[in-house]
Amino acid sequence: MAPTIFLLLALFSIVESTAGEGGGLKLELIRHRLSPDNVSPMAAKSQIWPETSQFIVKIAVGTPPTEVHAIFDTGSDLFWAQCRPCVKCYRQTNPIYDPSKSSTFRTLSCKSPQCHLTGSGAACSGTDTCKYGYGYGSGSTQGELATEKMAVTSRSGATTSFSGVVFGCGHNNSGTFNANEMGLIGFGRGAVSFVSQIGPSVGGRKFSLCLMPYNTDPRISSSLSIGSGSEVKGPGVITAQLVRTSDQTSYSLTLKGISVGKTFVPYSTSGPPAKGNAILDTGTPPTLLPKELYGRLAAEVRRQIPSKPIDDTLCYKGNLGNLVMTLHFDGGVNLRLSTIQTFNKMPDGSFCFTAMSVDDKDALIGNSMMANFLVGYDIDNMTVSFKPTDCTKIG
Ligand SMILES: *[C@@H]1O[C@H](CO)[C@@H](O)[C@H](O)[C@H]1NC(C)=O
Ligand SMILES: *[C@@H]1O[C@H](CO)[C@@H](O)[C@H](O)[C@H]1NC(C)=O
């Protein structure tokens, strides 16, 4: 649509960067081990949400910079951080970003084109400042949309900065965030997402990720590559065309079914699956499957694992055997998963299935199932590529 294109162009000419011509970025994604008093009761009770289940990007915001640790999320667009003055902020270990101390902070007005970018959650009413509101399954944030100078540091030590990046200055934030998570950085397809904004100055709106399996030492960081050099190619690469749905944020694929060993479990028993029924969401640790599909899948997993599960869970103390599961997406895209991706080791030594059932007709592929794949997201080409990779070997 023409208005969208106009806004994109308006934005691209606004973000300025110190990146060399088309130079890509190679960043670290870290996981935080929580101190015991930081673990929310919900996380402690739930069997498949161990600590260190989110991947965090470090980004320097403002002048002089405040280091913000933000959850890396392909399931949303906006970058927001807890921001003073707080109407309501959850507890945070590091200092909360204070725009009154930054010389490069600018609030946006409702008249500015950036206030109306896709995925911004902007709401203009009454006042002239661009307010936003954003809700997640597990929390919400409200505040004002603003622009700031942002900088990221590559593994090589080089720092690249970007001026005029649109972000949410969150004054009213709540949810299941822990004290080490200072905000959330959206890498969705929408125009306001961090990758959409900085992509043109680093060689394109594309990025790739290699996430460590849960069971690796959380001190080992995972990799995030943005722009040129992030392409996933070579032998063993499986590329899928993303499905265009009404949702302009998500990376959607069509999941036809899941095999357990040689047994194919179809997505639905009542006809073909809806187009774009599965999204890739790094901001959610478990994979979420519709109840009915989960039931059929769980029965098959129980049938094929040699040992007995603990009570009526899909957690095992004993041998998992050599269980191979395959995600079958449209277009002949088949992702083979080993127990590294399908079972998490719990603190008590048992192994629990990384998928859960939800009351929804669509599926969400969480970050645990994408571990040890180099996954390339290309917004302009509308593709996602997968390459089985030992992520500890990527630097
Ligand atoms: C803060 O956010 C909560 C949750 O969305 C909302 O109910 C409340 O009214 C907000 N408070 C203010 C002062 O805006
Ligand atoms: C993506 O699209 C560009 C042109 O828009 C093309 O040059 C490039 O080869 C494409 N990349 C892949 C991996 O298809």
From TrEMBL:
<keyword id="KW-0378">Hydrolase</keyword>
<dbReference type="InterPro" id="IPR034161">
    <property type="entry name" value="Pepsin-like_plant"/>
</dbReference>
<dbReference type="InterPro" id="IPR021109">
    <property type="entry name" value="Peptidase_aspartic_dom_sf"/>
</dbReference>
<feature type="active site">
    <location>
        <position position="73"/>
    </location>
</feature>
<feature type="signal peptide">
    <location>
        <begin position="1"/>
        <end position="20"/>
    </location>
</feature>
<dbReference type="InterPro" id="IPR001969">
    <property type="entry name" value="Aspartic_peptidase_AS"/>
</dbReference>
<comment type="similarity">
    <text>Belongs to the peptidase A1 family.</text>
</comment>
<dbReference type="GO" id="GO:0004190">
    <property type="term" value="F:aspartic-type endopeptidase activity"/>
</dbReference>
<keyword id="KW-0064">Aspartyl protease</keyword>
<dbReference type="Pfam" id="PF14541">
    <property type="entry name" value="TAXi_C"/>
</dbReference>
<dbReference type="GO" id="GO:0005576">
    <property type="term" value="C:extracellular region"/>
</dbReference>
<dbReference type="InterPro" id="IPR032861">
    <property type="entry name" value="TAXi_N"/>
</dbReference>
<dbReference type="Pfam" id="PF14543">
    <property type="entry name" value="TAXi_N"/>
</dbReference>
<keyword id="KW-0732">Signal</keyword>
<feature type="active site">
    <location>
        <position position="281"/>
    </location>
</feature>
<dbReference type="InterPro" id="IPR001461">
    <property type="entry name" value="Aspartic_peptidase_A1"/>
</dbReference>
<feature type="domain" description="Peptidase A1">
    <location>
        <begin position="55"/>
        <end position="387"/>
    </location>
</feature>
<protein>
    <submittedName>
        <fullName>Aspartic proteinase CDR1-like</fullName>
    </submittedName>
</protein>
<dbReference type="InterPro" id="IPR033121">
    <property type="entry name" value="PEPTIDASE_A1"/>
</dbReference>
<keyword id="KW-0645">Protease</keyword>
<dbReference type="InterPro" id="IPR032799">
    <property type="entry name" value="TAXi_C"/>
</dbReference>
<dbReference type="InterPro" id="IPR051708">
    <property type="entry name" value="Plant_Aspart_Prot_A1"/>
</dbReference>
<keyword id="KW-0325">Glycoprotein</keyword>
<dbReference type="GO" id="GO:0006508">
    <property type="term" value="P:proteolysis"/>
</dbReference>
